[in-house]
Write a structure and sequence with these properties.
The complex is a heterodimer of chains A (358) and B (308).
Chain A lengths: L1 E6 L5 H25 L4 H10 L5 H26 L7 H18 L10 H27 L3 H21 L34 H18 L1 H11 L1 H6 L4 H28 L10 H11 L4 H24 L4 H23 E6 L5
Antiparallel strand pairs in A: 1-2
Helix pairs in contact in A: 1-2, 1-13, 2-12, 3-7, 3-8, 3-10, 3-11, 3-12, 4-5, 4-6, 4-10, 4-11, 5-6, 5-10, 7-8, 7-10, 7-12, 11-12, 11-13, 12-13
Chain B lengths: L2 H30 L7 H19 L2 H25 L4 H20 L25 H5 L3 H19 L1 H11 L1 H6 L4 H27 L11 H11 L4 H24 L5 H5 L1 H16 L20
Helix pairs in contact in B: 1-6, 1-9, 1-10, 1-11, 2-3, 2-4, 2-9, 2-10, 3-4, 3-9, 6-7, 6-11, 7-9, 10-11, 10-13, 11-13
Classes of the chains: A mainly alpha (358), B mainly alpha (308).
């Protein structure tokens, strides 16, 4: 049997929008079967994963807090992936942003006088750190043609080890009873809470702003146009005279900056100090979010909320149903696989031709 | 350094190099056919979990190793359906396999954390294994090491000495032309991907059955990614994979010894060594390459959609 794929002449926008939803439904169905095979009630699991987190104010806030870094990182990655540049080291850029931005928070600890500049400086330094860290694979690719996939990924491990060393060594709180963590930041180095008594901090606003800005940049600027053209047709882009090298560096800078900003927002917002590990894999999960959101900023926002929901739900399921957290990770990987498969089905018409193979 | 200490060091280097070598050989074949599989890490870790679980249940290391390879094949089949059959993006699909593999391995291995098994048995030839200096090195390895070396020779022979190998390499260089010649592009690619998955799973099983030998979550610690880098480093040639794996294995062992000896550097800097060495190796390779000429299979990572 041969399976033929022919590109669909006119792709329907409805199908494009529906295919991730369909993939999600299939992933949920498979997840339900796995849960049943593990001897738990799929219905109860569904409620714990997807409904319970939406029913309480505190868990809704947790979902928003998880979604914010995912949306921010994924929005940056969308620029890369659209331009066929594969920065998969966002996790490292996130860590570096948190580390260097957080360093300012440690250095200014206990400072008196006017401290209004501390938080903005932290955010700027975190963003720049992520940007510079992302430019390492970017420059290696442009100068020497080194595969950015491998270098950006290797740098994740290096960044994690660097943070681990700094948090246990030079930046450790000397009065912290040898706990491997820095001092707790002063209020001037913390992102403000949106409402008194809640956990929701200004990082959520930063992420929302990033989505809006990215939408405008992609749709309304020459840079956005360049990214879209290169993604849609690299040949046409070369004829148009767009510089490959400049674009590569630009999308690395954008995605690294976004990841770095997300990193420092996490440190200055939720965590409030430097620890040996500051990310539960946001940089990798954001890759799923970017594709689930079909590389469009608004889609990414929705996808980030869905993935955050499953993550918070997964934590609930671990406590309530004793379902392991790895189930959530497997679900997310499966979801990405199904989204990519569904995308192919909406892009191509699939025909089965009996008899021959290709 | 006495002869025996030197032998000890070499034996540990080979042990560290073997999983990298086996996984890289599989990926080499897939990439020679034109498919970039970034799911090696996931297939490896799933192979480690499945291999250990099955070995504990059946009491047989060999069955465990086969099951580990089988788990890699299963995940590779999913990857093949996505990328080869449905022409989905290879980079994104590979990442999905890595995430899925890490998650599944956690589920498979959950009830085996903390268990220990005897490591895979080592060859023991009376009279030969006891030879000073080289006895353990040549006649005292475990089955994985010998199989890995056999695999190097087999892959080399297949790629450069058989017609099927020539077809596979041609498909990796130009899928349009080979398709026009009537060669079965997608079938060959799918099989190459499955072979890569089997090797990755086996390499993972080596970690949990012979190297450590126990199961710990995410125990591959990026070895799948290093195997991918190794393929580039080896310029897609099997014999250079062998040399490269020994080099990388050496870096890992050096790091462990340096940490034990307590030299001035912090432990984290030494742990970062294999990753930095990988980047350095890729950079040096690019510097040494002739200007303009790429050694990679020309169709690597490109999507092939046949119609008519």
């Amino acid at each position: 049997m041969r399976i033929d794929l022919s590109p669909r002449a006119n792709r329907s926008p409805a199908m494009d929008a529906l295919s991730p939803v369909l993939a999600f439904a299939v992933a949920v169905a498979i997840g339900g079967i796995v849960v049943a095979a593990m001897g738990r009630s799929p219905a109860a699991a569904f409620v714990t994963y997807f409904v319970a987190p939406l029913s309480e104010v505190w868990s809704l806030q947790e979902v928003a807090l998880k979604a914010a870094p995912l949306a921010l990182i994924a929005t940056g990655l969308a620029f890369c992936f659209r331009a066929n540049i594969w920065n998969i080291g966002a996790e490292g850029q996130f860590v570096v942003g948190g580390l260097f931005g957080g360093w300012i928070g440690v250095a200014t600890h206990g400072m008196t006088g006017n401290t209004l500049w501390v938080l903005p400086l932290m955010l700027v330094v975190g963003t720049l750190a992520g940007m510079i860290y992302a430019l390492i694979p970017g420059l290696l690719k442009v100068w020497l043609g080194v595969s950015e996939i491998l270098t950006s990924l290797m740098l994740v491990y290096v960044a994690e080890l660097l943070l681990d060393y700094m948090a246990r060594g030079p930046l450790r709180d000397p009065a912290g009873f040898n706990f491997p963590q820095s001092v707790t930041f002063d209020d001037a180095a913390r992102l403000p809470y949106l409402m008194e008594g809640d956990t929701l901090h200004a990082g959520v606003v930063v992420a929302l702003a990033a989505v809006v800005i990215a939408t405008l940049v992609l749709a309304r600027t020459l840079f956005g146009f360049t990214v879209r053209v290169v993604g849609a047709s690299p040949r046409a882009a070369r004829f148009a005279g767009f510089s490959d090298a400049r674009l590569t560096l630009a999308v690395f800078a954008v995605s690294g900056g976004a990841a770095g900003l997300a990193g420092i927002a996490e440190v200055a917002g939720k965590i409030g100090q430097l620890q040996p590990s500051i990310s539960p894999g946001y940089g990798f999960t954001a890759i799923i979010v970017a594709f689930l959101g079909r590389l469009s900023p608004v889609g990414i926002l929705v996808a980030a909320l869905v993935i955050a929901l499953t993550t918070i739900g997964g934590e609930g399921a671990q406590i309530d149903l004793k379902l392991p957290l790895d189930l959530t990770r497997a679900f997310q990987g499966l979801l990405l696989a199904l989204v990519l498969g569904a995308d192919a089905l909406s892009r191509y018409r699939v025909r089965f031709v009996p008899g021959v193979t290709t | 350094m006495s002869l025996d200490v030197m032998e000890m060091v070499l034996v540990t280097i080979i042990a560290a190099a073997t999983p990298l070598m086996i996984a890289a050989l599989g990926e080499l074949v897939a990439e020679r056919a034109g498919v970039l599989n970034l799911g090696v890490e996931g297939m490896m870790v799933l192979g480690a979990a499945t291999g250990f679980a099955v070995a504990v249940e059946t009491g047989s290391t060999l069955t465990g190793a086969i099951a580990g390879a089988g788990a890699g094949v299963a995940l590779a089949a999913l990857f093949g359906i996505l990328t080869v059959v449905l022409s989905a993006n290879q980079v994104a699909s590979g990442l999905a396999m890595t995430i899925l593999g890490l998650g599944l391995s956690g589920l498979v291995g959950a009830s085996y954390v903390g268990l220990k098994r005897d490591p895979a048995p080592h060859l023991d030839v009376p009279g030969l294994t006891g030879l000073p200096g080289i006895g353990r090195l040549v006649f005292g390895q475990d089955g994985f090491v010998y199989f890995g070396l056999f695999l190097v020779a087999a892959v080399w022979w297949f790629l450069w000495r058989t017609r099927a190998g020539l077809v596979l390499r041609a498909i990796g260089d130009d899928h349009t032309a080979t398709h026009a010649l009537g060669l079965k592009v997608r079938k060959v690619r799918f099989l190459a991907v499955l072979f890569g998955g089997a090797c990755a799973g086996l390499a993972g099983a080596y970690l949990s059955l012979a190297y450590t030998p126990f199961w710990a979550p995410a125990m591959t610690a990026g070895r799948g990614w290093i195997a991918l880098a190794l393929v580039v480093f080896a310029s897609w040639r099997p014999l250079r994979v062998l040399a490269g794996a020994l080099l990388f294995g050496g870096a890992t062992v050096l790091q462990l010894h340096a940490q034990a000896a307590g030299i001035g550097l912090p432990g984290q800097a030494l742990s970062a060594l294999p990753y930095l060495a990988t980047i350095l190796a890729l950079v040096l390779l690019s510097l040494g390459k002739r200007q303009g000429g790429s050694l990679a299979p020309a169709a690597l990572g490109r999507v092939f959609t046949p119609h008519r």
